[in-house]
Give the backbone structure.
Amino acid sequence: MRTDFTLAQLADPDTAESEKILRTCTHCGFCTATCPTYILLGDELDSPRGRIYLIKDMIAGVEEVTADTVKHIDRCLSCLSCMTTCPSGVNYMHLVDHARRWIEKNHRRTWDERGLRLILAQVLSRPWLFRLSLWFAAILKPWARFLPDRLAPSCALAPDSVAPASQTDRPGLHRPVGERRMRVALLTGCAQQVLAPEINEATIRLLTRHGCEVVVAQGAGCCGSLAHHLGQERQALGLARANIDAWERERLASGLDAIVINASGCGTTVKDYGFMLRSEPAYAEKAARIASLARDVTEVIASLGLRQPVAGVVTAKRRVAYHSACSMQHGQRLHAGPKELLEAGGFEPIDVPEGHLCCGSAGTYNLLQPEIATALRDRKLANIAKIRPDLVATGNIGCITQLASGCDLPVVHTVELLDWATGGPEPRTLAAG
Ligand code: SF4
Ligand code: SF4
């Protein structure tokens, strides 16, 4: 793609990076075939190619940042299906991340949009505040339809009850069972530990059972992904720096073989820390080192080899619809590994038809774009129903919440099944079913 940025514009490192990305696009349009918003809406401006043109004109200053441009970029899920499809290797992720930051700096949203986006970024990243807001949401849920349009979807997605905080999410050390094979830091995250504390508990049991010493580092918390995708870069980078400092302290004090992440959306962001902080001399090197240590939990277990499943545990509920989260398959390019582990654990993982399409969760997307998100969820659930599974498994809390909100089948995290198969308790959602 031809670009006409001035030298003054290219002095900005973000614009210089975007210019390089734009130049790799050949406008072939292959990416449109796998873009969920183009498939649903049929508008070129809701396709990757259309958005690339919009972003180019926006950051080159050819076009003002109009409400219409913002609408089409906001409708992008950041699912990165286009990146998997693109034959020219266009880094759409970095381009759209830049566009989101650009919009936040150069466009004034309506007051209700600004308010909702600020609340989401501030509340979801703080477990105590999120837990408190979920208690309120559970009380308000029966009256959700009377709430303002912007708040109703958040209230409708809230669980009916909220589990108390788990001890495992506190900073501390979890000793390996038997000989120590690895020392890892676990990102316990933010929203996940509130919505499903059993996921971190299962992850720690699984890792320690496989010989990992697991540290939950003091000072580590939200990865910054939610704020990053809302274009709220100051908050996102602040959270990234705090994690990098916390894990660097651990690495220097006692060594770290990996940083384990069990929410693929967070994993995609932590693996990108080196890029996000590339222009900060005090952090660039540390950020790249931390990013290189980041692993999805299934990568770590695959490298250690899954223990023989406990005989007689997985006898029923075996047909697992494996929903490959976009951040797992497109963001981290991990697809076969989690399914192979499930198979080794005695399950029968089955790919969901149209598996490359997003379920509509996409961080805070289901709260900000509820109509498109619900259409994608219902399409995903219809595809899941076609394969008649006993349950659904995935590696991202956002997808679990999104799918469970419209589905009678149990929806669990992959690690809960692997933990169960190798000696842990039956996942709560399955035991209750
Ligand atoms: S597939 Fe790649 S090169 Fe082709 S239009 Fe899409 S982003 Fe551009
Ligand atoms: S990230 Fe997903 S929604 Fe956005 S343009 Fe690419 S394929 Fe479409």
